[in-house]
Amino acid sequence: MNSESDFIDYLKTQVQTVENLNMIKYFENQIKFKQQTEHYKDKIKVSISLIKFIETMCPNYSNVTIFGSFTRNLLEKIFMNSSEKGFGNPINHDIDMTIFDDISNYNREKDNFNDMISLFKILANNNSFDFNFYGYKIVDVSDKTLRETDLSEFAGFGKRFMINLPHFVLVLKKDNIMIKYDLLAYKVNHDNNWQNEYNINSLSITNKGIIINNPNEEKSYKFFNILHSVLEKEAVCNIPFEKILDNFLIKSRGEKIQILNQIIWFMTNRIKILSLGYKKISSDFKFIDYIIEKEEVCDLTGNNAPYIKIKLECSHYVSLMGLIGITNIRTSDWTESIKCPYCRASLNIKLIEIKPSEIIVPSEPEKDLINIDDYEIDMIINSDDNQNYISHILHKNQVPTNLTPTTESQTTRARNNYIASSRRSREEYFRIVQNRFNRDNDWGGHDEDRVIGWGVPESNQTRVREVPSP
């Protein structure tokens, strides 16, 4: 064979290989999508069953609410037709749940709540009970309640609202599949500055349906805006960093540490939304200027990439690992300031504007709106006369008199019969119709196979055995 033929055969082989690889990836993708969908269905069924059980254990004041990624996945699933990295994937995500709306309702039913947790612990440690939620059995119950002694002096604001709030992690298992619940006794009274960090995570599910927690009435937190954000894979942040960092340089060292620790926690745990299929983080306020380093080793800590670097007002970038060290490890007792490790300027975080994408709304058209008559209609399904006939009766409760019948005698007869049915009793109407057919058709009613026509063209007449009812 010559070289050209060999080269063509080689190309065919490569194309076939690529096609096979693409086909393999396609089927792998579809299998993952099916697994994710089935897992989410299980989560829904188990959650409904668990909620109903909790309501029987705490029947008086409970209002079970599910929030977080589980609710977000509900919208993400609408826009999926195959597996996407992170987006809509419920696997390895806890289900966040609160039992009561506030601490007062919890206190009213605390005994019932404690009895329920005790029962869960008994079930988790005893396999002899055939107690399950759609085949999922409780295998572990962990007490994660935060105590004052668990927190450092400069812990972030969020955790401080969790102190002494009953918090349990409930693990259910069927075969090798696990579903994990984060159970909070009641809703946390967050500081508003740090509440509902993303619009896509502001949805909650209760017995009343889907609820949006939007205390500040931000535009991005309205339902259709949230739906648009999920569709565009854009998370809109609601945290007012500009307000939080206002007068940052004149605050005490303790206040600075609390603010920086909360920001570091947010950037560490919430920027990961970008690894869950979302392409962009925007904000109705100003947002932290940051980059994701994917190659270089951190020159402050020696940690390998990837990691997040925050831009400072002095224009230097510092990694989150470096920032947490600068913030919490004091190198001198002689100063209250926290400084940039590169230029020694007072440390302050740079903010930028990243506005949410706008929903496209068309402007008012300059020309008259197109009438429905201008659209192309493939098939007439109801004639204009028939539509006018129906419309006339609906609006005026009387039969129109200005419509021209196609066959005068038959149509007039049918209309008269219709009027008769509305004005006379049923027995009288049947008597009139029977006499009219006997007279017009010279039919005595003995021939059961006789073809009769009542307001019907001859080509469409039907054999009947009795006079049709009105």
In words, what does this structure look like?
This protein is α+β, with helices and mostly antiparallel strands. It has 3 domains: 1-189, no CATH class; 228-358, no CATH class; 372-463, no CATH class. Helices cover 37% and strands 15% of the residues. The protein is built from 12 helices and 16 strands. A 7-stranded mixed β-sheet has the order 3-4-5-2-1-6-7. The longest helix has 55 residues, at 3-57. It is extended, with a radius of gyration of 36 Å. Residues 370-378 and 443-470 have low confidence and may be disordered.
Strand content: 15-25%
Strand order, largest beta sheet: 3-4-5-2-1-6-7
Q: Any idea what the shape is?
A: extended
Category from helices, strands and their pairing: alpha+beta
Q: How are the elements arranged and paired?
A:
Layout: H1 3-57, E1 65-67, H2 69-76, E2 95-100, H3 103-108, H4 110-124, E3 137-143, H5 157-160, E4 167-174, E5 177-186, E6 203-206, E7 209-212, H6 223-232, E8 234-237, H7 241-244, H8 253-269, E9 280-283, E10 286-288, E11 290-293, E12 307-311, E13 317-319, H9 320-328, E14 351-353, H10 384-396, H11 408-423, H12 426-440, E15 451-452, E16 462-463
Parallel strand pairs: 2-5, 8-9
Antiparallel strand pairs: 1-2, 1-6, 3-4, 4-5, 6-7, 10-14, 11-12, 12-13, 15-16
Helix pairs in contact: 8-9
Describe what is shown at a glance.
By secondary structure, the protein is α+β, with helices and mostly antiparallel strands. It has helices at residues 3-57, 69-76, 103-108, 110-124, 157-160, 223-232, 241-244, 253-269, 320-328, 384-396, 408-423, 426-440, and strands at 65-67, 95-100, 137-143, 167-174, 177-186, 203-206, 209-212, 234-237, 280-283, 286-288, 290-293, 307-311, 317-319, 351-353, 451-452, 462-463. Strand 6 and strand 7 (209-212) form a beta hairpin.
